[in-house]
Structure formats: C-alpha cells, structure tokens
Design brief:
The structure holds two protein chains of two kinds. By secondary structure, chain A is α+β, with helices and mostly antiparallel strands. Helices cover about 30% and strands about 30% of the residues of chain A. Chain A contains two helices and three strands, in the order E-H-E-H-E. Chain A is elongated, with a radius of gyration of 15 Å. The termini of chain A are close together. Chain B is about 25% helix and about 25% strand. The longest helix of chain B has 11 residues. Classes of the chains: A alpha+beta, B alpha/beta. Chains A and B meet through helix 1 of A and loops of B.
C-alpha cells in the first residue's frame, strides 16, 4: 500500500469566505504580513494502485467544477 | 398522479415533502438502498443532511442505488425536483449545472425569503405568474450557487434561471441572486428554499410552496396553465 495525500482547494477566482475570515483573524492576533489565505481539505489514504487516485478525485474526493486537487504520494 | 419522495439516512425534510406532495397527488417514500421508483410520475429529492453530508453536501448520496434509477428517470424526461440538500445532490449527480458552496456569511441561516419567478413557462413554475413573488423559508449552510460565467450565460439564454432571491434577500451570496435552476431540457429543477415548508399560511408564512407541487401535477397530467 502506498500512502497518499490529496489536497483539495477552492478554485482560483471563487470567493473563499473561510480563507477571508482566517486572513482577517491573523492580524487581529498580532500576525502581520499575511495574504492570500485559502482553506481547503486534506484527504489521506492508503492505496494499492495510485493510478486510480485521479479518477477517485474526479468522481468523489473533489468537485472539479469548484475545487482543484493535488495528489501527493509518500515515497 | 404519484410523487416518489426519496429518503436517505440523514434526510430530515422527507416527511414534509411527502405531506406537501400529498396535498396535490399521491405520494410515497422511496428508500435510498432500493432501486424501484414504484411507478412514481415525479421524484422529489428532499432536504436534510444525506449520509451526514460527509465530504461535500450530496457527494455520497448521488451514488445511492435509488439515484441510479432517478438519473435514468431524468434522462427519460421524468420530472425531478431537488430541494436544498436535494438540489445539492442533483448538482453532484450532474443532473443540474453548477455547484453549491458555503454561504458567504459562513453560518447556517434560517429565514423567510422572497423569491421572484423568472421563468413561468417551465414544468415546475407554470402555475406561477412571470415576476410573481413567492414567500418561502430557506435554511442552509451551503446554498451559494456557483457556475462559471459561460455556463451562466447559456443558462440565462435557455431560461434555466427559474427563481432568484428578491432584492436584499440573497443571504448566501449566490451568483446573480440565483435561488433555483433547471436543466436545459427543463425536467429537472433544484432550489435552496423549501416549498414543502410553505404549504400552510398558519405555519409556513405562506402557502406559495404548493404552487411548485401543483405545477408539477399540471405538467404530469398534461394540463398547461
């Protein structure tokens, strides 16, 4: 089995209210110099055939209409 | 005519939808793990939190066995109404264009909303007048309608933008104030507000929701308002 991580993010250009909220909260806590905050999801899974991951993302793990996904395999 | 109302684990507006549909026709619940639509003339995919809304609202429910039959039914031209979570399920199933994102206010919000009928010629709204204002409750966290600009322009030309929030009522941040859309063929319709909760003026704020169910009955029975 191979350990995989799928990072799912809101597509560029789609308003991300969670990211906006976090971006506003950080300066309020004294963290200056923060920009372009986006909040997404992480799916971790063990797979026998990593070649299936893209299809898994397209069909279920992400909604390609509104989300980008990135597949990262642990070596 | 007979309505089939789907019931997933986590549906919570299924019985209200059954009751509303039962005001204008016969209505029967259809359990998610079955495949038989039991002779229904129209399908209602109700509100709630199907399969816990895990991953994304509607993402798991769209693969339920009953949904395979509903997708075939829709492709044959059968009427399918999706309300709230049902709208999300129909978008995930690609029976409707676009997607529903988290509300701009980042909160679950419940309020009575005013809706304007933009297309009164369709199978779900021909019991309404063009420009008519409906008063119907909405309650959701993930109701911000999104489709890309090209898709929205094509939908607008084809009359698929059926309902919009009246001025000042778009609390979720939907593009173009969109509250309800149909597919290109016009036999699948989804909306975030809950017509099944607005069937009695005593508790629903109005009985405007019945007009959606009544329009469906007229369509199935071949009566054009």
């Amino acid at each position: 089995m191979i350990r995989a991580r799928v990072l799912i993010r809101p597509k560029a250009g789609i308003l991300d209210p969670q990211g906006v909220a976090v971006e506003r909260a950080l300066p309020a806590l004294g963290f200056a110099g923060v920009a372009n905050v986006h909040v997404g999801r992480l799916v971790e899974l063990d797979v026998e055939d990593p070649a299936q991951l893209e299809s898994m993302c397209e069909k279920l793990l992400a909604n390609p209409l509104v989300e980008d996904y990135e597949i990262v395999l642990d070596e | 005519m007979k309505f089939g109302v789907l019931q997933f684990p986590g549906s919570c507006d299924d019985l209200d939808a059954l009751n509303a549909a039962g005001r204008v026709g016969d209505a029967e619940l259809l359990w998610h793990s079955e495949r038989d639509l039991k002779g229904a003339d129209a399908i209602v995919v109700p509100g709630g939190f199907s399969y816990g809304d895990y991953l994304r609202a509607g993402a798991i429910a769209r693969f339920a066995p009953i949904m395979e039959s509903v997708i075939d039914f829709a492709k044959d031209g059968g009427l399918v109404l999706g309300i709230c979570n049902g709208f999300q399920v129909l978008c995930e199933a690609r029976l409707l264009p676009g997607a529903l994102l988290g509300n701009m206010n980042r909160r679950f919000t419940f309020r009575q909303v005013g809706l304007e009928v933009l297309n009164s010629g369709g199978s779900f709204t021909h019991g309404c007048a063009l420009g008519e204002r409906l008063s119907i409750p909405a309650k959701h966290s993930w109701g911000r309608y999104y489709a890309d600009a090209e898709t929205l322009a094509a939908m607008d030309r084809a009359g698929q933008l059926v309902l919009r929030y009246a001025a000042g009522q778009n609390f979720n941040g939907s593009l173009h104030d969109i509250a309800g859309v149909s597919n290109e063929r016009g036999n699948v319709f989804g909306l975030m507000p809950h017509p099944e909760h607005a069937i009695d003026e005593l508790v629903g704020g109005s009985s405007d929701g019945l007009k959606i169910f009544e329009s469906m009955r007229l369509t199935v029975e071949g009566v054009h308002a």
